[in-house]
Amino acid sequence: MASVLITQRRERDSHLAPVAREGWRRRGFGIVFGTDTRAGRVFDIVLMVAIVASVLVTMLDSVSTLHERYGGLLRTLEWLFTGMFAIEYALRLAVLARPLRYARSFYGLIDLLAILPSLASLVLTGTEQLIGIRALRILRVFRVLKLARYVGAADQMRAALVRSRRKIFVFIATMLIMISVFGAVMYVVEGPAHGFTSIPRSMYWAAVTMATVGFGDIAPSTPLGQFITTIMILIGYGIIAVPTGIYAAELTQSLNRDRMQRRCNACGWHGHEADARYCHHCGASMATAADKPVAGA
Predict the structure, then answer these.
(1) DSSP class per residue in 59-78
(2) Which residues 6+ apart lie within 8 Å of 235 measured at CB?
(3) Which whole number is the average pLDDT over 243-253?
(4) Which of 84, 174, 232, 296 is the most exposed place for a label (fewest CB within 10 A)?
(5) CB-based contacts of 233: which residues, under 8 Å, 6+ apart?
(6) pLDDT at 20
(7) DSSP for 4-58, written as a single string
(8) What is the DSSP letter of 270?
(9) Residue 195 per-residue DSSP state
(10) Which domains are seen in the chain, by residue range?
(11) Which of 247, 192, 187, 239 is nearest to 211 (CA)?
């Protein structure tokens, strides 16, 4: 199942094919986009280190004391990283058959956003703080660590969320209704004198209270308001686990269905994980046993 999903994703990313089958573009594609070669892995690891370092530089530069003392050095490092990312972005476009499609893709936009804040800071002040958005490029770590084998598990979780969307929608709608009702009640009971200056502000307080967060910026003062607050807290404790339970139930059913689909055809044993390589019962290889008929079937 996971291999099928990986293949489908590779087909969706077919626009990343190199321009030529031979030549520098072919070799460059293997380095810039590939992780199967030593050069590709080294390139991605160096890129990861540069991304993390650039984000740390931006964070340190936001500290006033460090900015006053090391502002020049941090600024120089930031431009160094910007130049590295600009060269890397240009290389990615150069080795692709359809560079515009990559430029409009998710990672292409993230790569571009890693460069633009520094360039925009030459014209507009304050935009350099947006450099922290390049932290999103850490998402490339999934390619470096070859986590594609977990794509199947991620899709299972997403599918479980989709199947439970109606129940979760009903839960959210119920919560919004209760927040609106309690917010209106507390606006009447407490009033502006105790901080409940409007129904929307009272609804904010109701949402915080039912979520059992309790920031303390608004608090009831009358005995009736405190009693209502107690009721809301008890309700919040009772229903806060509802969406988690709904999602967990759907995910469990999905996992059970996937396990039942994996059967060893050598002995007929059910209940294998989707990526199982050997039968837990007889030890036969799942890859080879799948072509054998089940005894007595």
Answers:
(1) HHHTSHHHHHHHHHHHHHHH
(2) 178, 210
(3) 77
(4) 296
(5) 209, 210, 212
(6) 47
(7) HHHHHHHHHTGGG-BS-SSSHHHHHHHHHT--SSHHHHHHHHHHHHHHHHHHHHH
(8) B
(9) T
(10) 2-145 (1.20.120.350), 154-261 (1.10.287.70)
(11) 239
Cα 287 to Cα 297: distance, rounded to the nearest angstrom: 19
**Residue 22 half-sphere exposure toward CB, CA atoms < 13 A:** 0
pTM score of the predicted model: 0.51
Specify the pLDDT at position 174.
87
pLDDT, tens digit, 9 for 90 and up, residues 14-70: 444 445 455 777 788 888 887 677 888 888 888 888 888 887 887 787 788 888 898
Angle at 39 between CA 36 and CA 42, to 5 degrees: 95
For the chain, how are helix, strand and coil distributed in percent, rounded to 5?
A: 70, 0, 25
Residue written as token pair 């407490």: 190
What is the distance between the alpha carbons of residues 113 and 134, in angstroms, rounded to a whole number? 7
The average confidence (pLDDT) of the chain is 75
Measured between alpha carbons, how far is 181 from 232 in angstroms, rounded to an integer?
11
pLDDT at 296: 39
Comparing CA positions, the residue from 27, 55, 31, 29 lying closest to residue 43 is 31
Separation between Cα atoms, residue 212 and residue 207, nearest integer Å: 9
Exposed (0-12), middle (13-18) or buried (19+): which is 182, by Cβ within 10 Å? buried
Q: What percentage of the chain carries pLDDT values higher than 70?
A: 70
pLDDT digits (tens, 9 = 90+) for 91-137: 888 888 888 888 888 778 877 877 777 777 666 665 555 655 655 65
Neighbours of 92 (CB within 10 A): 20
